[in-house]
Amino acid sequence: xxxxxxxxxxxxxxxxxxxxxxxxxxxxxxxxxxxxxxxxxxxxxxxxxxxxxxxxxxxxxxxxxxxxxxxxxxxxxxxxxxxxxxxxxxxxxxxxxxxxxxxxxxxxxxxxxxxxxxxxxxxxxxxxxxxxxxxxxxxxxxxxxxxxxxxxxxxxxxxxxxxxxxxxxxxxxxxxxxxxxxxxxxxxxxxxxxxxxxxxxxxxxxxxxxxxxxxxxxxxxxxxxxxxxxxxxxxxxxxxxxxxxxxxxxxxxxxxxxxxxxxxxxxxxxxxxxxxxxxxxxxxxxxxxxxxxxxxxxxxxxxxxxxxxxxxxxxxxxxxxx
Length: 322
What we know:
Elements: E1 2-5, H1 9-20, E2 25-29, E3 46-47, H2 49-52, H3 59-64, H4 67-72, E4 82-85, H5 91-100, E5 105-108, H6 109-115, E6 125-129, E7 133-134, H7 137-150, E8 154-157, E9 167-168, E10 180-190, E11 199-202, E12 209-215, E13 218-222, E14 226-227, H8 236-249, E15 257-268, E16 275-279, E17 282-286, H9 292-307, H10 315-318
Parallel strand pairs: 1-2, 1-9, 2-8, 4-11, 9-17
Antiparallel strand pairs: 3-7, 4-6, 5-6, 10-13, 10-14, 10-15, 11-12, 12-13, 16-17
Helix pairs in contact: 1-7, 1-9
Protein backbone atom coordinates (compact mmCIF):
# COMPACT_ATOMS: atom_id res chain seq x y z
CA UNK A 1 0.00 0.00 0.00
CA UNK A 2 1.32 3.46 -0.96
CA UNK A 3 -0.05 6.39 1.01
CA UNK A 4 -0.16 9.95 -0.35
CA UNK A 5 -0.74 13.20 1.49
CA UNK A 6 -2.67 15.68 -0.64
CA UNK A 7 -5.27 15.14 -3.38
CA UNK A 8 -4.38 18.25 -5.34
CA UNK A 9 -2.83 18.24 -8.78
CA UNK A 10 0.45 16.53 -7.82
CA UNK A 11 -1.15 13.98 -5.49
CA UNK A 12 -3.79 12.90 -7.99
CA UNK A 13 -1.28 12.72 -10.84
CA UNK A 14 1.00 10.51 -8.74
CA UNK A 15 -1.93 8.32 -7.73
CA UNK A 16 -2.78 7.88 -11.40
CA UNK A 17 0.76 6.83 -12.34
CA UNK A 18 1.04 4.44 -9.40
CA UNK A 19 -2.35 2.86 -10.16
CA UNK A 20 -1.31 2.48 -13.79
CA UNK A 21 1.55 0.32 -12.52
CA UNK A 22 -0.73 -1.83 -10.38
CA UNK A 23 0.01 -0.30 -6.99
CA UNK A 24 -2.58 -0.05 -4.23
CA UNK A 25 -2.92 3.62 -3.30
CA UNK A 26 -4.67 5.60 -0.57
CA UNK A 27 -4.76 9.40 -0.76
CA UNK A 28 -5.55 11.63 2.23
CA UNK A 29 -7.04 15.08 1.62
CA UNK A 30 -8.19 17.66 4.17
CA UNK A 31 -10.61 19.23 1.68
CA UNK A 32 -14.10 17.82 1.29
CA UNK A 33 -14.27 17.72 -2.53
CA UNK A 34 -11.81 17.47 -5.47
CA UNK A 35 -9.72 20.59 -5.94
CA UNK A 36 -11.18 22.72 -3.15
CA UNK A 37 -7.90 22.84 -1.26
CA UNK A 38 -5.61 22.92 -4.31
CA UNK A 39 -3.93 26.07 -5.58
CA UNK A 40 -4.30 24.49 -9.04
CA UNK A 41 -7.93 25.63 -9.09
CA UNK A 42 -6.63 29.14 -9.78
CA UNK A 43 -4.39 28.04 -12.68
CA UNK A 44 -4.76 29.06 -16.28
CA UNK A 45 -4.53 25.46 -17.47
CA UNK A 46 -2.26 26.32 -20.38
CA UNK A 47 -0.14 23.49 -21.80
CA UNK A 48 2.36 25.90 -23.30
CA UNK A 49 5.94 24.63 -22.95
CA UNK A 50 7.35 26.71 -25.80
CA UNK A 51 5.83 29.93 -24.51
CA UNK A 52 7.07 29.17 -21.01
CA UNK A 53 10.64 28.93 -22.33
CA UNK A 54 10.63 32.74 -22.46
CA UNK A 55 11.30 32.82 -18.71
CA UNK A 56 11.91 29.17 -17.77
CA UNK A 57 14.66 26.60 -18.14
CA UNK A 58 14.87 24.20 -21.09
CA UNK A 59 13.69 21.35 -18.82
CA UNK A 60 10.22 22.87 -18.94
CA UNK A 61 9.99 22.00 -22.63
CA UNK A 62 11.58 18.57 -22.17
CA UNK A 63 9.36 17.53 -19.27
CA UNK A 64 6.25 19.34 -20.48
CA UNK A 65 6.14 17.87 -23.97
CA UNK A 66 4.42 14.71 -22.71
CA UNK A 67 1.59 16.59 -21.00
CA UNK A 68 -0.65 16.83 -24.09
CA UNK A 69 -1.20 13.11 -24.52
CA UNK A 70 -1.26 12.43 -20.78
CA UNK A 71 -4.07 14.87 -20.07
CA UNK A 72 -6.02 13.85 -23.18
CA UNK A 73 -6.56 10.44 -21.54
CA UNK A 74 -8.18 12.13 -18.55
CA UNK A 75 -10.00 15.32 -19.58
CA UNK A 76 -10.76 17.39 -22.72
CA UNK A 77 -7.66 19.11 -24.11
CA UNK A 78 -8.20 21.97 -26.55
CA UNK A 79 -5.20 21.95 -28.88
CA UNK A 80 -5.76 25.24 -30.65
CA UNK A 81 -2.39 26.84 -29.98
CA UNK A 82 -1.39 29.99 -28.14
CA UNK A 83 -1.56 33.44 -29.71
CA UNK A 84 0.92 35.98 -28.33
CA UNK A 85 0.16 39.62 -29.12
CA UNK A 86 1.22 43.09 -28.01
CA UNK A 87 0.02 46.65 -28.59
CA UNK A 88 2.04 48.59 -31.15
CA UNK A 89 3.82 50.55 -28.40
CA UNK A 90 5.11 47.26 -26.92
CA UNK A 91 6.47 45.79 -30.15
CA UNK A 92 9.91 45.47 -28.51
CA UNK A 93 8.38 43.00 -26.03
CA UNK A 94 7.12 40.86 -28.91
CA UNK A 95 10.58 40.85 -30.51
CA UNK A 96 12.19 39.88 -27.21
CA UNK A 97 9.63 37.10 -26.66
CA UNK A 98 10.26 35.72 -30.16
CA UNK A 99 14.02 35.62 -29.61
CA UNK A 100 13.70 33.68 -26.36
CA UNK A 101 11.25 31.05 -27.65
CA UNK A 102 10.92 28.54 -30.49
CA UNK A 103 8.25 26.56 -32.37
CA UNK A 104 6.26 29.64 -33.32
CA UNK A 105 5.59 31.62 -36.46
CA UNK A 106 5.03 35.31 -36.91
CA UNK A 107 1.52 36.41 -37.85
CA UNK A 108 0.34 39.76 -39.17
CA UNK A 109 -2.91 41.58 -38.51
CA UNK A 110 -4.73 39.70 -41.26
CA UNK A 111 -3.85 36.27 -39.91
CA UNK A 112 -4.60 37.34 -36.34
CA UNK A 113 -8.09 38.22 -37.56
CA UNK A 114 -8.38 34.84 -39.28
CA UNK A 115 -7.31 32.99 -36.14
CA UNK A 116 -9.49 35.06 -33.82
CA UNK A 117 -12.11 37.16 -35.68
CA UNK A 118 -12.86 39.11 -32.48
CA UNK A 119 -9.33 40.56 -32.67
CA UNK A 120 -9.52 41.62 -36.34
CA UNK A 121 -7.99 45.05 -36.84
CA UNK A 122 -6.82 45.32 -33.23
CA UNK A 123 -3.25 44.01 -33.40
CA UNK A 124 -0.74 44.33 -36.25
CA UNK A 125 1.70 41.58 -35.26
CA UNK A 126 1.87 38.49 -33.12
CA UNK A 127 3.35 35.03 -32.61
CA UNK A 128 1.39 31.81 -33.04
CA UNK A 129 2.49 28.70 -31.12
CA UNK A 130 0.37 26.25 -33.06
CA UNK A 131 1.26 23.09 -31.10
CA UNK A 132 0.18 24.36 -27.69
CA UNK A 133 -3.09 23.70 -25.90
CA UNK A 134 -5.22 24.46 -22.86
CA UNK A 135 -7.61 22.68 -20.52
CA UNK A 136 -10.05 23.60 -17.78
CA UNK A 137 -8.15 23.13 -14.48
CA UNK A 138 -11.17 22.56 -12.27
CA UNK A 139 -12.73 20.06 -14.60
CA UNK A 140 -9.33 18.38 -15.00
CA UNK A 141 -9.01 17.94 -11.23
CA UNK A 142 -12.53 16.50 -11.00
CA UNK A 143 -11.93 14.20 -13.95
CA UNK A 144 -8.58 13.04 -12.59
CA UNK A 145 -10.11 12.36 -9.18
CA UNK A 146 -12.88 10.29 -10.78
CA UNK A 147 -10.38 8.48 -13.01
CA UNK A 148 -8.09 7.32 -10.22
CA UNK A 149 -11.03 6.16 -8.12
CA UNK A 150 -12.25 4.10 -11.07
CA UNK A 151 -8.77 2.56 -11.13
CA UNK A 152 -9.12 1.49 -7.51
CA UNK A 153 -7.43 4.37 -5.70
CA UNK A 154 -9.04 5.24 -2.37
CA UNK A 155 -9.32 8.99 -1.72
CA UNK A 156 -10.24 9.92 1.83
CA UNK A 157 -11.62 13.43 1.52
CA UNK A 158 -12.03 15.42 4.70
CA UNK A 159 -9.26 13.35 6.31
CA UNK A 160 -5.85 14.64 7.43
CA UNK A 161 -2.92 12.44 6.42
CA UNK A 162 -1.19 10.29 9.05
CA UNK A 163 2.13 11.45 10.44
CA UNK A 164 4.05 9.17 8.07
CA UNK A 165 3.19 8.71 4.38
CA UNK A 166 5.14 7.34 1.45
CA UNK A 167 4.55 10.41 -0.72
CA UNK A 168 3.90 14.03 0.26
CA UNK A 169 2.20 16.30 -2.30
CA UNK A 170 1.02 19.08 0.00
CA UNK A 171 2.61 22.08 -1.72
CA UNK A 172 3.37 24.98 0.61
CA UNK A 173 2.46 22.87 3.64
CA UNK A 174 5.48 20.62 3.08
CA UNK A 175 8.48 21.18 5.41
CA UNK A 176 11.09 21.49 2.67
CA UNK A 177 14.11 23.82 2.80
CA UNK A 178 14.20 26.47 0.10
CA UNK A 179 10.51 26.22 -0.75
CA UNK A 180 8.94 29.64 -1.18
CA UNK A 181 5.46 30.94 -2.10
CA UNK A 182 4.82 32.84 -5.32
CA UNK A 183 1.41 34.47 -5.20
CA UNK A 184 -0.76 34.29 -8.29
CA UNK A 185 -4.04 36.13 -8.80
CA UNK A 186 -6.83 35.66 -11.31
CA UNK A 187 -10.35 36.63 -12.30
CA UNK A 188 -13.08 34.73 -14.12
CA UNK A 189 -15.17 36.82 -16.47
CA UNK A 190 -18.44 36.09 -18.24
CA UNK A 191 -18.72 37.88 -21.57
CA UNK A 192 -20.79 36.04 -24.20
CA UNK A 193 -20.41 39.02 -26.55
CA UNK A 194 -16.71 38.21 -27.16
CA UNK A 195 -15.80 34.94 -28.86
CA UNK A 196 -12.21 33.76 -28.39
CA UNK A 197 -11.27 30.12 -28.88
CA UNK A 198 -7.61 29.83 -27.82
CA UNK A 199 -5.28 31.01 -25.09
CA UNK A 200 -3.99 34.57 -25.58
CA UNK A 201 -0.93 36.22 -24.08
CA UNK A 202 -0.82 39.99 -24.02
CA UNK A 203 2.72 41.26 -23.61
CA UNK A 204 3.45 44.27 -21.47
CA UNK A 205 6.83 45.38 -20.01
CA UNK A 206 5.56 45.38 -16.43
CA UNK A 207 3.27 42.37 -16.29
CA UNK A 208 2.45 40.06 -19.23
CA UNK A 209 -1.06 38.67 -18.88
CA UNK A 210 -2.99 35.76 -20.34
CA UNK A 211 -6.62 35.05 -21.11
CA UNK A 212 -7.93 31.50 -21.47
CA UNK A 213 -11.41 30.59 -22.73
CA UNK A 214 -13.47 28.31 -20.51
CA UNK A 215 -16.43 27.89 -22.86
CA UNK A 216 -19.97 29.32 -22.86
CA UNK A 217 -18.67 32.88 -22.73
CA UNK A 218 -16.46 32.38 -19.66
CA UNK A 219 -12.81 33.43 -19.56
CA UNK A 220 -10.02 33.19 -17.01
CA UNK A 221 -7.52 36.05 -16.93
CA UNK A 222 -4.33 35.99 -14.87
CA UNK A 223 -0.59 36.37 -14.94
CA UNK A 224 0.54 38.06 -11.74
CA UNK A 225 3.66 36.68 -10.03
CA UNK A 226 4.24 38.25 -6.62
CA UNK A 227 6.84 37.12 -4.09
CA UNK A 228 4.52 37.06 -1.11
CA UNK A 229 3.29 34.66 1.56
CA UNK A 230 -0.01 36.50 1.96
CA UNK A 231 -3.09 34.45 1.11
CA UNK A 232 -5.51 37.36 1.32
CA UNK A 233 -7.97 38.06 -1.49
CA UNK A 234 -6.85 39.64 -4.76
CA UNK A 235 -5.60 43.21 -4.43
CA UNK A 236 -7.30 46.14 -6.10
CA UNK A 237 -4.13 46.91 -8.08
CA UNK A 238 -3.92 43.40 -9.51
CA UNK A 239 -7.62 43.25 -10.31
CA UNK A 240 -7.38 46.63 -12.05
CA UNK A 241 -4.43 45.38 -14.13
CA UNK A 242 -6.27 42.20 -15.10
CA UNK A 243 -9.44 43.99 -16.12
CA UNK A 244 -7.48 46.65 -18.03
CA UNK A 245 -5.72 43.89 -19.95
CA UNK A 246 -9.03 42.31 -20.87
CA UNK A 247 -10.29 45.66 -22.14
CA UNK A 248 -7.06 46.12 -24.13
CA UNK A 249 -7.68 42.77 -25.82
CA UNK A 250 -11.24 43.69 -26.78
CA UNK A 251 -13.47 46.62 -25.69
CA UNK A 252 -16.38 44.19 -25.39
CA UNK A 253 -14.91 43.03 -22.08
CA UNK A 254 -16.02 46.34 -20.59
CA UNK A 255 -19.46 44.73 -20.34
CA UNK A 256 -18.16 41.50 -18.80
CA UNK A 257 -19.42 40.26 -15.46
CA UNK A 258 -16.71 39.49 -12.90
CA UNK A 259 -17.86 36.06 -11.76
CA UNK A 260 -15.00 35.24 -9.42
CA UNK A 261 -11.62 36.48 -8.24
CA UNK A 262 -8.99 34.45 -6.46
CA UNK A 263 -5.41 34.25 -5.25
CA UNK A 264 -3.21 31.30 -4.40
CA UNK A 265 0.31 30.60 -3.16
CA UNK A 266 2.25 28.48 -5.64
CA UNK A 267 5.21 26.50 -4.26
CA UNK A 268 8.56 27.21 -5.91
CA UNK A 269 12.23 26.45 -5.36
CA UNK A 270 14.97 28.99 -6.14
CA UNK A 271 15.40 27.71 -9.73
CA UNK A 272 11.60 27.58 -10.28
CA UNK A 273 11.84 23.91 -11.30
CA UNK A 274 10.00 21.04 -9.58
CA UNK A 275 11.87 18.50 -7.50
CA UNK A 276 11.64 15.01 -6.13
CA UNK A 277 13.27 14.94 -2.72
CA UNK A 278 13.39 12.45 0.13
CA UNK A 279 13.26 13.43 3.78
CA UNK A 280 12.64 11.24 6.80
CA UNK A 281 11.61 8.29 4.67
CA UNK A 282 8.99 10.28 2.75
CA UNK A 283 9.28 11.21 -0.92
CA UNK A 284 8.17 14.75 -1.77
CA UNK A 285 6.88 16.02 -5.12
CA UNK A 286 6.91 19.79 -4.95
CA UNK A 287 7.85 23.08 -6.57
CA UNK A 288 5.47 22.94 -9.53
CA UNK A 289 5.38 26.77 -9.40
CA UNK A 290 3.27 28.07 -12.30
CA UNK A 291 3.88 25.00 -14.48
CA UNK A 292 1.61 22.62 -12.60
CA UNK A 293 -0.58 21.13 -15.33
CA UNK A 294 2.35 21.14 -17.73
CA UNK A 295 4.89 19.36 -15.51
CA UNK A 296 2.75 17.27 -13.14
CA UNK A 297 2.60 14.28 -15.56
CA UNK A 298 6.39 14.00 -15.86
CA UNK A 299 6.96 14.48 -12.14
CA UNK A 300 4.28 11.91 -11.31
CA UNK A 301 5.91 9.37 -13.62
CA UNK A 302 9.28 9.99 -11.97
CA UNK A 303 7.78 9.66 -8.48
CA UNK A 304 6.04 6.39 -9.36
CA UNK A 305 9.26 4.94 -10.72
CA UNK A 306 11.15 6.01 -7.60
CA UNK A 307 8.58 4.52 -5.22
CA UNK A 308 8.32 1.28 -7.18
CA UNK A 309 12.08 1.22 -7.78
CA UNK A 310 11.76 1.21 -11.52
CA UNK A 311 14.40 2.55 -13.89
CA UNK A 312 14.15 4.07 -17.34
CA UNK A 313 16.25 5.74 -20.00
CA UNK A 314 15.14 9.11 -18.64
CA UNK A 315 16.30 8.66 -15.04
CA UNK A 316 19.45 10.67 -15.65
CA UNK A 317 17.30 13.55 -16.89
CA UNK A 318 14.93 13.40 -13.94
CA UNK A 319 17.80 13.52 -11.47
CA UNK A 320 18.46 17.04 -12.76
CA UNK A 321 15.13 18.13 -11.28
CA UNK A 322 15.43 15.99 -8.16
